Amino acid sequence: MLARGARVGLGGQWVVERLIGRGAFGDVFCATHAVSGAASAVKAEAVASRRLLREDQAYGMIHSASGGAAAGFPRVHWCGEGEGVGGARLRLLVLQRLGPSLEEARRAFGGALPVRLLARLGRDMLRRLEWVHAQGLVHCDVKPGNLLWPPPCRRGIVGSARFSSLPNHALAPLGPRDDVEALGYTLAFLGTGSLPWANAAPPSRAAEAARKAAAPAAPPAEEEAQRQARQAEKRRRFERIGEIKAAAAEDEIAAGLPGEFAELLRAARALQQGDTPDYEALRQLLLLPEARAATAAGASVGAQGGARARRVAIAQRRPAPPIRRRRLEARRGPRFVP
User: Taking CA 145 as the corner, what is the angle to CA 54 and CA 57, rounded to the nearest 5 degrees?
Assistant: First the structure.
């Protein structure tokens, strides 16, 4: 066991922050580099065990075979011995810290990952296992807690939960695909005025500011308890939004709009991390509803113009109303016949 604030590595380069995992053979801690502040993970086990030595060798083989850094595998910063709580000797392995585990992602999605995301993850994991097996290695402990999102590691959603992408809810790395998916939700909201998860959204910042202004001052301890309760409620709301969003089909989200808006969402959700969206194809896709709306508007204007032209023609063919002779004579005065 390592104490919080303990320094490990050559010259104490990494500072231990907290315990983040515990297994049958050792503990895993979150740590930061004392100079750069980069996040790392520290594995600790009894010095008599040689598991971390074998793990260090396995990562070396995997990265060497790729000619550098193999995608999807953490880099080893340092491996050696250190002192734990009570003077116990520990074997330590300092690794690049990857993102949250797939088990954490599963919980963020309300207990089950959506099929589309699950299939993409399965393909990625098969590629990783293929590379491991090609080096003559076997993992032997494949489970959700040992499969991680790649960095950067985030503690929460970036941006607005209402419009954020599904990978954003799962704390996955963000990229162009996430902006396009968020744009799809934005267009659906602008066209319909609501989203299926609208009722689960937390209060706006303006509403929260108004609540704080109206609430009487509370003792520091009570205020802290209230703050933590609000944060817990906010996390529950975010989780609920993610659950509803993952379960909602694209046609349901864009209900009432032309089908191309749902198709844009489908295209965005199908993108994988690192994919570049086909912006031109998406623009062409949205030309279709615009063209149909313009055609419909032109037909309506043409129908109105044709009806007006018919009314004018009928009015022009209609004979003038008869004028009584004596009224005409009264205006013109008496007529003299020579």
Answer: 15
